[in-house]
Structures are given as structure tokens and as C-alpha cells.
Amino acid sequence: MDETRARFLAAIAKQLPAERIAEAHLFAAIRQGGVESGVAVIALEPEQVEAAPQEPGDEPLATEASEVPEAADATAVKETLAEADVNDALGEDVDDVPADADDDSPYADVAPTVVAAPAPPRRYVVCTARYRHTLKGPDRGKWEVTVTEEADAPLLTVDAVVRGVQRRSGDVDEIVRLSGEELRAALPAPATP
After folding, report:
1. pLDDT tier at 71 (50, 70, 90 boundaries)?
2. Which end of the chain, N or C, is less surrounded by CB atoms within 10 Å?
3. Which residues contact 156 (CB under 8 A, 6 or more apart)?
4. 56: in domain
5. 43 and 126 inside one domain
6. Residue pair 135/35 in contact by the 8 Å Cβ criterion
């Protein structure tokens, strides 16, 4: 890693808590005139927030068949479906099903299993960091870094956006992806007094 990138990472770590950084994507620097600039996309672990008390009626879904009441026959299934208003969702009329329809089925004695809804993907705070380093002119040596919180998204989305930006920009240089551990290892050691 070159000196400018190491300096950029150190400046990011001054503005963001380094222990919360999950990953960072560093784009190639651009030199234009006497100025060099660079961009990074950083995914931060969300701040730990105390769990909110559970509201009444927010019970989790049953995940085992033993927690589901067994339907004795097709009539009970019809009543259950009618209560749940599944008829409209399926676009079928359950009343047209003969009462003995399940008698010949090999699954007649099997109770349906309720499956828990999949957990939503973990979301991270997405930040962009930009640096501007003046290389020539009266402001030579000037160094500016800005870090802005942009959104929250899963890591897969962050990766997809980074690849899309690279593709649209026509940048042939590979984007450097650092995990949180790699970023922390690349930071300069704090000076001891």
C-alpha cells in the first residue's frame, strides 16, 4: 500500500470508529492538474442499540410441526383456509373441493409445517470518504478529507454498487477491498508518549 492510501486510511479512522469498520473499498486515485483525489466506500457495523421491548402480538412464527394444530379432515382444512382468507389469495374456491379429497392422498395425515420468515439481511452504515491532495501550486501539500454517511445497506448491495461504479467509469484499475481487520492492520501504530 502506498503512502497516500495509508494516509487516507488514517484520516478515515480519525473520523470513523475503526473498530466498527466492516470493509472498505478504495478506488484508484485520479490526478488532474496539480491535484490528486481519491474516493473510498466504507461499510460500518451499526451502532449497538438496546433491543426494544416486544409489542403484544409480535410473537415469532412457529417453526416446528408440533406447534401447528393438526387438521382432522378436509372440512377442518377448509374452515382454517376460510378463516385465513386464503381463498382470495389462491384464486380458488376451496368449497369446490370434495370432503373426501384427502382420503386417497399419501399426505392426508401430515400436518402442514409453518416456516419462520427468513431474517432480513444485516444492514451496514455506508459512508463515502474523499480526499483532495494538492501537489502543485501555491497550496502545495494541502490535504483535505471528508467523510459522509450516505445510507444503510447489506454488504452484497455495497459490493454491487462498487462494481457498478467501476464498470460505468471505465476504470481498469482494480478497486482495493479491505476487510475491517485488514484496514485496522494497515493503520499506523498510535504514538506512545
Report:
1. very low
2. C
3. 121
4. no
5. yes
6. yes
DSSP H helix total and E strand total for the chain: 5, 6
CA distance 50 to 152: 19
Q: Which domain holds residue 26?
A: 3-47+120-186
User: Could you read off the pLDDT of 25-45 as tens digits, one per residue?
Assistant: 999 899 998 999 999 999 999
Residue 173 lies in a domain: yes
Cell of 21: 469498520
Task: Note whether 109 and 134 are same-domain residues.
Answer: no
Question: Is residue 58 one of the residues assigned to a domain?
Answer: no
Contact 141, 134 (CB under 8 A): yes
The one-letter code for the residue type at 148 is T
User: Do residues 113 and 65 lie in contact, with contact meaning Cβ atoms separated by under 8 Å?
Assistant: yes
- How many independent structural domains does the chain possess? 2
